[in-house]
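Let us work through a complete example step by step.
Step 1: write down the sequence.
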Amino acid sequence: MQDLLGRSDILSSMLNFAKKILRFRALKRLYARHERALVPAMLLIGVVVDVVTFRTIEVNTAFLVLGVYAVLAGVMIALMHWYDSSKRLIEKPTGFGYLRLIAPLIVQFTFGALLSASLIFYWFSGAFTVSWPFILAIILLMGANDVFREQYLKPIVQLSVYYFILFSVLSVAFPFLFNSLSSWVFVSAGIASLVLALVYIRLLFLLRPDLLHMRPHPMIPVGVIFLVMNGLYFLNIIPPIPLSLTDAGVYHSVERTGSTYTVLAEEESLIDQILPGETIHAVPGERIYVYASIFAPVDLNTTVVHHWQRYIEGQGWVSVNRLSYNISGGRADGYRGYSYATSHSPGTWRVDVETQRGQVIGRVRFEIEEPDGPLALIEHKK
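Step 2: predict the structure and record it as tokens.
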């Protein structure tokens, strides 16, 4: 009787194990069948989560969420390599087996979320005409996250993208942490990301020793990314996080009364409002004002420069004047200021709103033309 019961228990265990294997393989087939749709869907979800996150919670909490994403991505990458190197069969229905199955999807989601978070910050913190190489790099990485997802499973690619993400996120977080736009803040973020990458790669080698023979060594692309990021920063291509231009324009008059700015603008048609650039009519010697509202969400004190430039055929953009004023961050609607010029002539002009280092926060481009009659001016409150 006991033999029959023992055999029955063994048979029951075998059947349960077989059911688990069948469920696991069915889940694996389902995942493989819909992977092409799941990956971009997870990327889109990551972007949506970022937009909601930065709109509904304070910045410090948002950075905590990004930190969790970064740690989760690192853990999933390490898990995949540990699981594969220990020669476990992915068909084996263990808890680690299920986690290994969905780990690439989690990595895709966290990469997409972290890249989109960086894009959100960098997109709104600089003029695209200046910062486009860096912003384009983030957009391409987001696209490659879907199109070249098989390449993303390679260790050298994973580690390179992961380091770029670490550097990007830390270079965004450090100005908020230290309330400063100084060069040492960006350099410190780069060094911190480099140390984290070195420690992580050493730990990964312990989990998967065969990666020691990987060529090129993962620290080589990490070092290249470190140098390129610093080069872009000191060439003023990387925008000045956390400053962003929320409103700007060229006007005939700007007056401040208390906390309200009153501007006089020319009446524009619907087509003029849609087309890029502005046109202002003025005679030589008449004042032309450029107004700018800058969002600085931290307790930050810095200097803003209005760099007036004129385009001259054969010479390009020629500097005319640099006017500066101080701002103190924290105002929800942005810190407002203006500059004006009287030494101007008809032609193409632009005013770059910059930091003291020359990083472009935003740009106002306009044409100056001489008036051929009375102007219809409209008053706006800012």
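Step 3: interpret the result. Residues 17-22 have pLDDT under 50 and may be disordered.
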